[in-house]
């Protein structure tokens, strides 16, 4: 396995870091069967990649072996975001038969954390992700990791997250209050649930810690959504 050095992008904000620790704890409490976790959002620029990267580092810091998988093979951003200067191979190259598994998994400078980059833009992303090779790949690598965190394109814009969700144990839905309407988020989460993927929870990102009233209002709306979903499943 090749080694690679990544730029540490963790925030110094106390409240943000405590929220990441809480998210880590909630994932651990979800049960040992929850290993392959999809992380998505409704729209771009909601801070999804920052959250999943911080979560991967947090899990690694407590001794969990983590694989961060960038499954956005439409528009990957990790190479530039993390200051990677050398040429790397990624998921799109593996799925298209241009690389093998050992070519795309990189050991990072963060404790217990490996990474797979998205790779060059694929001409038919949803088609590649739908093929059996991706499902077999996930089943194989889950034997070696405590958690596999999968960063997907926003489900409100393309179908990829729902396709990937069929292969995952659960999903985390990230929301930026003020930028995403409740109905849009509800529709996106319903689409993910129809893929058969269990939604583990919704994470509110970019919250002003002083705006308690606004935060509580948004939390109430999403609580009502989950209650309705629970009632329908009874």
* Most strands sheet: 8 strands, mixed
CATH superfamily: P-loop containing nucleotide triphosphate hydrolases
Query: How large is the radius of gyration?
Result: 17 Å
CATH class identity: Alpha Beta
General shape: globular
Protein model, in words:
- This protein has 234 residues and is α/β, with parallel strands linked by helices.
- It has a single domain (2-233), classed as P-loop containing nucleotide triphosphate hydrolases (Rossmann fold, 3-Layer(aba) Sandwich).
- The protein is 42% helix and 16% strand.
- The chain contains 10 helices and 8 strands.
- It has helices at 14-28, 48-61, 78-81, 91-95, 101-104, 125-130, 132-141, 160-165, 182-194, 212-233, and strands spanning 2-4, 36-41, 66-70, 106-108, 113-116, 147-151, 170-175, 199-204.
- The protein has an 8-stranded mixed beta sheet, sandwiched between helices.
- Mean pLDDT is 85; it is low at 212-230.
Quick recap of the structure?
The protein is an alpha/beta fold and 234 residues long. The chain has one domain (2-233): Rossmann fold, CATH 3.40.50. The chain has helices spanning 14-28, 48-61, 78-81, 91-95, 101-104, 125-130, 132-141, 160-165, 182-194, 212-233; strands at residues 2-4, 36-41, 66-70, 106-108, 113-116, 147-151, 170-175, 199-204.
Which SSEs are present, and which pair or pack?
Blueprint: E1 2-4, H1 14-28, E2 36-41, H2 48-61, E3 66-70, H3 78-81, H4 91-95, H5 101-104, E4 106-108, E5 113-116, H6 125-130, H7 132-141, E6 147-151, H8 160-165, E7 170-175, H9 182-194, E8 199-204, H10 212-233
């Amino acid at each position: 396995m090749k080694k690679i050095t990544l730029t540490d992008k963790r925030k110094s904000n106390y409240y943000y870091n405590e929220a990441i620790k809480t998210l880590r704890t909630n994932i651990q409490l979800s049960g040992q069967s929850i290993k392959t976790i999809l992380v998505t959002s409704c729209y771009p620029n909601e801070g999804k990649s920052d959250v999943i990267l911080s979560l991967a580092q947090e899990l690694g810091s407590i001794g969990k072996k983590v694989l961060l998988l960038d499954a956005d093979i439409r528009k990957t951003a990790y190479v530039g975001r993390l200051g990677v200067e050398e040429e790397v191979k990624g998921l799109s190259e593996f799925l298209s038969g241009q690389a093998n598994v050992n070519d795309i998994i990189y050991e990072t400078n963060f404790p217990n954390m490996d990474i797979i980059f998205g790779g060059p833009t694929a001409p038919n992303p949803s088609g590649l992700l739908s093929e059996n090779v991706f499902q077999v790949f996930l089943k194989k690598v889950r034997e070696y990791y405590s958690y596999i965190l999968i960063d997907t394109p926003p489900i409100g814009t393309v179908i990829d997250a729902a396709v990937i969700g069929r292969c995952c144990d659960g999903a985390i839905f990230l929301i930026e209050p003020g930028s995403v309407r409740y109905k849009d988020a509800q529709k996106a989460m319903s689409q993910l649930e129809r893929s058969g993927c269990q939604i583990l929870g919704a994470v509110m990102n970019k919250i002003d810690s002083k705006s308690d009233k606004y935060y509580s209002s948004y939390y109430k709306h999403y609580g009502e959504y989950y209650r309705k979903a629970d009632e329908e499943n009874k």
